[in-house]
Structure formats: structure tokens, C-alpha cells
Amino acid sequence: MKNMETKMQCLYQELVRISAGFLIYQERKNIVLVKGLIPQIQEFALWFLKENRSGLEGGTYQDMCQNLLCILNDIVISLEQEDQVLLQDAIAHGLLEYLELFVGVHQEEEENDTI
Asked: I need a labelling partner for 100 at 20 to 30 A (CA). Which of 42, 71, 92, 115 fits?
């Protein structure tokens, strides 16, 4: 069984791939692809909302929880209405930013820069 860090890294990579496909390659199948990731998105959201694992101040953490719920709501609405642009926005400028708090994105980018 994968630990949560590994699961978040996999989810992050999949969402980046979907987002890049939408923006760069004009692939218009993000709704189908994100629907397939709903269990992983739900698992991450529940994990984040369960407790303050990032050491943020209480008020900041509560604000982030409220914001995450808004992002999740946007994802649900976009899937229901088949709104690819809203979904892209919720993923790229919402959920990915939360995942970046916990995955080694910046370290990974620095390693890629040295190659």
C-alpha cells in the first residue's frame, strides 16, 4: 500500500499531465481524465481537512480548508456542467497549488534545471 506522500506525488503528476495536455496540446478530454482521479482527489482532500499537517497558524489553516472546499466545489460543478475551462482553472490554479505544499515539486524542478 502506498503512503500518502507517494499518492500525492502520483496525483500531482497526473494532474500536471492533464493540465499540460489541455493548455499545450489542446487536448479536450480533461473531464474524463479528472473523473478517473476523483477517488485520489477525495483521499487527498480528506487527508488535508482532517488535521493541520503543514504547521500553519490556526486561522490560516481554516482559511485554506475553506478555500479547498471551494476548489472541490468548482471541480464538482465543472464535471456536472462539462465545463472544461472551469475544471482547468480549479486544477491548475487550485488543487495543484495545494499538492505542491506536500510534494517535492521545487526540489524536482531544481534537479531538472541542472540536467
From this structure: 115
